[in-house]
From TrEMBL:
Recorded superkingdom: Bacteria
Spans through the membrane: 21-41
Residue span(s) of domain DUF218: 58-173
Stored InterPro entries: Cell_Envelope_Assoc, DUF218, Rossmann-like_a/b/a_fold
Protein name: ElyC/SanA/YdcF family protein
Pfam families per record: DUF218
Keywords of the record: Membrane, Transmembrane, Transmembrane helix
Amino acid sequence: MRLPRVRRPRLPRTRAGRRRLVQAVMAGCVLALLPSTWMYVVTGDRLRTTADVPRTEVAVVFGAGLWDGEPSPYLAHRLDAAAKLYRENRIEVVLVTGDNSREDYDEPDAMRAYLTRHGVPDTRIVSDYAGFDTWDSCVRARKIFGVHKAVLISQGFHIRRAVALCQAAGVTSYGIGVDAKHDATWYYGGTRELLAAGKAALDVVVRPDPRFLGPKEPGVSDALASAHR
């Protein structure tokens, strides 16, 4: 059985045609990079380290997966940074936001347990069980938990998007990009961010409601009140 021939795309034969093709390719590349460029501009002066981040009442830690019910190494590094800030009296409350969309997968509770084992009192930890993506987490931090200013903690490849989205959601933010081993997960995350940047820009323009919004919760204000007693 003969397979049908696959026709190769023909390049334009004229100089003008080739020039238009090059211009189209260049325009496509520019459009693809615009969201990433926007994120770098918006977050240029908002990135810090655990050593120089301004003292802020609330830190937000984004979920990054579980391994056998425990935080993945990437998530553990984020939580270690939050625990360090708490021990140094740089923050007072940690809002852990992650996925609890099914009964056998609970990022926020695993994050809470990890933090308490590393010296953060349970009363200073607030759980957001509907942080299904970065935009949802940022909007819920503002609208549900009443967070107006926060330190955001994630890996370097994700932190700019987190800061840009939280700023757009009304949360004045500084971002800490924690160190991470440059393994396959790191390279995948960095590549994924090129696509995620486009979605982030769309979220800022369209401003969709989170998958689950629900009523306001006093967890953060209660935790801050207990911290000030």
